Amino acid sequence: MNKPSSQHHIKAFLRTNVIFVLCLLLAGLFAAKPVCAQRITTWAGLQAALDENNDGGTVKLTRNITASANDGPLKIRGTVTLDLNSYTISRNLSQAASAAKVDGNVITVYGNLTIVDTSMRKPGKITGGNNKGNGGGVLVSAGKLTINRGTISGNSANIGGGVYLEKNNELKSEFTMNGGKIYNNKAERGGGVYLFGAYKEDTKDYTSEFTMNGGTIDNNAANDYGGGVYVNT
To answer: Do 85 and 194 share a domain, yes or no?
Structure first.
């Protein structure tokens, strides 16, 4: 039997490595936006990271983030993914009625926010919101919220303790729940989620949209209507 020549080995080596290099180049061209690797330690630092990565990037927590008394809601503009990574984002307001603040929610979404948790541990949570107005945990204002994994719990508001989809005549407020959990939130109406469904005033259409593909909405409370979900029509 004839042994392969050294020339044959060289050609095979070159061919394999050229394919490998091409694969690396293609992976770089089509890769998703990188995960924000900076260590975030403050509320302001988290807001800055969300702003810096709002063109499709991902911000991954490496510790719990708690707001101070002078901090307002985190604001989402553009498109960003927030990886809780088993950690907690807390507005640090108790659920007592006396602790409620104007704009006391944790996050306001004007753009497109996706919440995930890639850890193998207990999923992280969004908590500690207490709003005199609407939306205790997440207020979606003509934006889009998607939850794949993570929890929204321990929030209070006048309307929409966990998630509130604000009515808007120009852009629809949307919420898609693929996984995760909304629990232990409270409000006058819509303890877990509050939205406007097929809601019109005169010629203006304020319809918002909630799609639930998975996850759990459990153990929320409302003093009036809709402990879990309230749809205003």
So the answer is: yes
Shared domain for 75 and 159, answered yes or no, is: yes
Q: How many CA atoms lie within 13 A of 177 on its CB side?
A: 19
**Do both 2 and 114 map to the same domain?**
no
> What is the Cα–Cα distance from 122 to 77, expressed in whole angstroms?
28
Tell me, yes or no, whether 51 and 125 share the same domain: yes
| Per-residue tokens: 197 | 């469904």
Containing domain of residue 5, as a range?
Answer: 1-31
Give residue-wise pLDDT tens across range 139-173.
Answer: 999 999 999 999 999 999 999 999 999 987 677 89
- Give CA angle at 185 (173, 161), nearest 5°: 35
Taking the C-alpha atoms of residue 215 and residue 232, their distance in angstroms, rounded to an integer, is 22
pTM > 0.70: yes
Contacts of 33 (CB under 8 A, 6+ apart): 53, 55, 56, 57, 58
Are 118 and 184 members of one domain?
yes
Instruction: Retrieve residue 21's tokens.
Output: 């290099």
Spatial distance between the Cα atoms of 19 and 47, rounded to a whole number of angstroms: 42
**What tokens does 35 get?**
């995960």
* Residue 15 sits in the same domain as residue 95: no
Identify which of 106, 120, 113 has the alpha carbon closest to the alpha carbon of residue 71.
Answer: 106
CA-nearest of 224, 125, 136, 230 to 185 is 136
Total structural domains within the chain: 2
Reported as a single tens digit per residue, the pLDDT across 28-53 is 444 455 565 458 999 999 999 999 99
Distance (Å, rounded) from C-alpha 131 to C-alpha 187? Answer: 9
